[in-house]
Design brief:
Mean pLDDT: 78
Order of helices and strands: HEEHHEHEEH
Strand content: 5-15%
Helix content: 55-70%
Oligomer: single chain
Largest sheet: 5 strands, mixed
Structural class: alpha+beta
CATH architecture of the largest domain: 2-Layer Sandwich
CATH superfamily of the largest domain: OmpA-like domain
Strand order of the largest sheet: 1-2-5-3-4
């Protein structure tokens, strides 16, 4: 009886030991599986962390590039604005310069047209004078002025006299007709002297001017007497010139 109990106990203990061993093995296997899971999980976390770091770095880089791009765009817009303003200023400057140049061209054209018109008028007066006074008359043009020249011998009895010769009294009324036909011209009776006796030359010039004024239609205010050094020439010139005062008044008005 005692042996049977002992055998039963041994079987029971063996059975318990076997069960406990199996449980321990299963527990160890489960622990090993858990460790593998933890290891895999740690690897996944590490990999995810690296990816996050890479993403953060890329995001920071993109943000930096975005800031630089915005700054570059702002600088470009500022430069474009400055360029536009400078271009506008340059355009305004060019337009002002062109307007000023156009005004100057108009002023120069006014002077050119006036001179051209004066030259044309002078040529017309020259032709008229030659037809009126004859081919032997001494007539020329200088700086747009028509000049009718006469020697003292032709005009006066002698070089110390102020009395006009018969030829002069016939000649001067013809000159007066030319003056009447051109009332817009100022007339200068110029006495040329080489001896310095300007008083006598003035009296002789006055005699010529007086003979012209006696002709009906001559405006005394258009006659001027001038005596000057003849530079080796003696005589009296009757100069028909354009109205310089009127021209300068027009020029002043044009250049305002």
């Amino acid at each position: 009886m005692h042996k049977k109990i002992t055998l039963v106990l041994l079987l029971f203990v063996g059975t318990v030991f076997t069960v406990e061993s199996q449980k321990k093995k299963d527990l160890l296997d489960e622990i090993a599986m858990l460790k593998d899971s933890i290891t895999n999980l740690n690897d996944s976390i590490s990999k995810a962390s690296r990816q996050v770091n890479v993403s953060v770095s890329k995001a920071a880089l993109f943000e930096k590039e975005n800031v630089e791009l915005r700054d570059a765009n702002a600088t470009l817009l500022k430069n474009l604005s400055s360029f536009s303003q400078i271009s506008k200023q340059n355009t305004e400057t060019v337009n002002k310069a062109l307007a000023s140049l156009k005004a100057k061209e108009g002023q120069l054209q006014f002077i050119t047209d006036n001179f051209s018109q004066n030259d044309s008028t002078a040529i017309g007066i020259l032709t008229q004078a030659k037809q009126t006074l004859g081919p032997d008359a001494k007539i020329g043009i200088s700086n747009g002025d028509v000049i009718i020249s006469n020697s003292m011998d032709f005009l006066f009895e002698n070089d110390q006299d102020t009395t006009l010769t018969e030829g002069a009294r016939t000649f001067l009324p013809k000159v007066a007709q030319i003056l009447i036909a051109n009332p817009d011209r100022q007339v200068f009776v110029e006495g040329l002297n080489i001896t310095g006796e300007f008083g006598l030359t003035y009296q002789q010039s006055f005699s010529v001017a007086n003979a012209l004024m006696t002709v009906e239609g001559i405006k005394p205010e258009n006659l001027n007497i001038l005596v000057k050094d003849g530079n080796f020439k003696e005589g009296i010139n009757i100069r028909l010139t354009s109205n310089k005062e009127e021209f300068y008044a027009q020029l002043k008005e044009e250049f305002k």
